[in-house]
Amino acid sequence: MRKVSMLLLVLLIMPLSIATSEDIAKHDLKALYQEEGIYAGPNQFSDYWARDALFATLGANSIGDYDISKKQLELFIKYQNIDGQIPMRVGDYDITLKLLGININQGQRPRYEQDKLFSNPRDQNCLFVIAAEDYIVKSGDIQFARENFHNFENAITWLASKDDSNNFLIDEGEYAGWTDSVKKNGEVLYTNVCYYRSLKAMSNIAHIVENEPEAQLYDLWARLVHKRINDNFWLDDGYYADWIHDGTTYTYFSTDGNVLAILWGVADEQKAKSILSYAESNKISEGFGVKTTYPEYKTALISPVNIFAGIPDYHTEMRWLWVSCFYAKALNENGFENRATDELAEINAGIEKQGEVYEVYDSDGEPINRLFYKAEHPFAWSSGVCTYVTQDWQSN
């Protein structure tokens, strides 16, 4: 009788212990809150990575965790160099040993250049301004905007200095973008979409601090970048090219750049529908989540480090939830509501199945677990973006 009673008690308790994907994403995001901001992950990425942490603040702000977002922004302000560059990460200067599972205390230092070929990333400066605007608007902390306005301007000025062709598009070196296993260089779609969005953010921050001349200047600047992206990157096939270098247009479909172009206003309604139709017809979302690119990048474009490590598909076939969640959001806002619902439901089911938000997944929804590389978990970037998208979805 006692065994039967215990079994009934367990059955009653079990449903209450099953967390929803929303709960899991929030929990994983909060688990990575640290003294000065948000770690990208607890293991091989236990540092303050700019792009990871700044995207993650969108999620933190969406649930009212403004203090952690402010700390993260303040950390990058602290290490912004004299030229206005925001570090790529703050923490261990060399992460080689950490990636091999050997973690030694190196002390906290800023690193400004990429680990591969020492290229300087650009998107961290864009995301710094974008994240600052999101924090200021949602928290109402106008004093922070006033006190740090020059830091935001310096970040934009540094970006402008990377316009090698003087055509309102910024250039970057090999492996400098978030897809740092791929040898992209020159004018990259993802980075320039981030650049456009940062200029719009800068215009809004200027407006908030009642600096109307600067607000108008940055708005005009943004419109010029907007025109250049649409003139130079748009293809007759109905989407934006991946990157342009030395007069050559690389026509891969980058899901990240195209989806952010939709969400951040680079693409108009007609272009947005065209992009999504192209993605759907080419089965970008076949299997769990979405592919990062179509078709796969040629082997010659993949970093030898990734090939040696057994993850040449790190930024091609592997599925990143932050890209997948943004893709679902773009579908939902552009007339593909049923597909959006299906896509988000699939993502949520995957999160609930694993009980955590992982860095990268196979197309069957299983976290990457290979001989030399295992997906980081929990993962702040995806936890933050999934939280942000879910909160935004529910409010609209």
Keywords:
396 residues, alpha+beta, Glycosyltransferase, 4-stranded antiparallel β-sheet, 3-stranded antiparallel β-sheet, 53% helix, 7% strand, disordered N terminus
Summarize the structure.
53% of the residues lie in helices and 7% in strands. With 396 residues, it is an alpha+beta fold. The strands form three sheets. Strands 6-7-8-9 form a four-stranded antiparallel beta sheet. Strands 3-4-5 form a three-stranded antiparallel beta sheet. Strands 1-2 form a two-stranded antiparallel ribbon.
User: What is the H-and-E element order?
Assistant: HHEEEHHEHEHHHEHHEEHHEHHHH
Specify the number of helices: 16
Strand order of the largest sheet: 6-7-8-9
Uncertain stretches of 5 or more adjacent residues? 1-17
Top-tier CATH class = Mainly Alpha
CATH architecture: Alpha/alpha barrel
* Structure summary, number of beta strands: 9
Q: How would you describe the overall organization of this protein?
A:
- With 396 residues, this protein is α+β, with helices and mostly antiparallel strands.
- The protein has one domain: Alpha/alpha barrel (Glycosyltransferase), CATH 1.50.10.
- The chain is 53% helix and 7% strand.
- It is built from 16 helices and nine strands.
- The protein has helices at residues 2-17, 21-31, 50-62, 66-79, 96-99, 123-139, 142-147, 149-160, 189-208, 212-233, 255-263, 269-281, 304-308, 321-332, 337-354, 380-395, and strands at 33-34, 37-38, 48-49, 89-91, 109-111, 187-188, 241-245, 248-254, 293-294.
- The strands form three sheets. The chain has a four-stranded antiparallel β-sheet with strand order 6-7-8-9. It has a three-stranded antiparallel β-sheet with strand order 3-4-5. It has a two-stranded antiparallel ribbon with strand order 1-2.
- A hairpin with a 2-residue loop joins strand 7 (241-245) and strand 8 (248-254).
- The chain is globular, with a radius of gyration of 21 Å.
- Mean pLDDT is 93; it is low at 1-17.
